Amino acid sequence: MEADIREVFSSIQGEGPYVGYKQLFVRFCGCNLKCKYCDTDFDTAHASKYSASGLLKLAEMNQDCHSISLTGGEPLLSIKFLKEFLPKCKLPVYLETNGTLYKNLAEIIDYISYVSADIKLPSCTGLRQMWDLHDKFFKIASQKILFAKMVFNNSITEDELIKACNLCKKYSIELVLQPEMVDNKLSVSSEFMEAILNNALKYYHNVRLIPQVHKFLNVQ
């Protein structure tokens, strides 16, 4: 069993509540969504084939990392590969996901330590609403250490903010607001970010605002 993987590298986690930790990043190719703001190259044309045993060797060489970050693209599309790889991986597993493929998640949840799950806002992604999918996903993911990450821009609506807060409140998880970046610059003003955070805190107490720190640090 092999997987199409765009790149494997160690670096600093730049998003969410685990920002600053050293991780081994495994960027899988392919995604079931196409968000307008996506800035990640996960095209299979630039992929390498990795076997489970080959990736396990790299994990063993990076035991100083806090965890292994499975990212993408959408790593849960490579479910057959993950079912072979994860039971043998000794590093804690940090899954970065768009939070939609709940059936695939259920097959490997026992091997996951941390879940960073997106909340996809129609106003920012250009996609249809996915509240039901996120709800089903969070129900399974909440068995582990879970937080939600939500990219937003000037188009965010009050209804979206309320629904996101209520969803996170339902599962008692942290909601991380992440302003969209355009050409490595924040797409919204400081005043707008603060206003969105303050507004969110009216509906749910466990909310933080964390931009993509790795872009400010100029690391991969």
Biggest pleated-sheet summary: 9 strands, mixed
Element pattern in H and E: EEEHEHEHEHHEHEEEHEH
- Quickly name the level 1 CATH class: Alpha Beta
Instruction: Quote the CATH topology.
Output: TIM Barrel
Strand order of the largest sheet: 3-1-2-4-5-6-7-8-11
State the domain count: 1
Report the helical percentage: 25-40%
What ranges have pLDDT less than 50 throughout 5 or more consecutive residues? none
Shape summary:
globular
Derived structural class: alpha/beta
Q: Return the average pLDDT rounded to an integer.
A: 94
Report on this model:
The protein is α/β, with parallel strands linked by helices and 220 residues long. It has a single domain (2-217), classed as Aldolase class I (TIM Barrel, Alpha-Beta Barrel), CATH 3.20.20.70. The protein contains eight helices and eleven strands. Strand 9 (181-182) and strand 10 form a beta hairpin. It is globular, with a radius of gyration of 17 Å. The mean pLDDT is 94.
